[in-house]
Amino acid sequence: MVNLNMDGPARDQVMKLIQEKDRIENEIREQNLVLEENNIGMQDPLVDGDGYPRNDIDVYKVRHARHLIICLQNDHKNIMKQIERGLGEVHSQFRANGEGTSSNGQSHSQHINGYAEVTHNVSDARPNANDQGFAVIAFVLLGSPADTAGLHENDELLEFGTINATNFTDLNQVNNLVQHSVGQPIQLRVRRGSVVLSLTITPRVWTRPGLLGCRIEKKS
Question: Which residues contact 123 (CB under 8 A, 6 or more apart)?
Answer without folding.
Answer: none
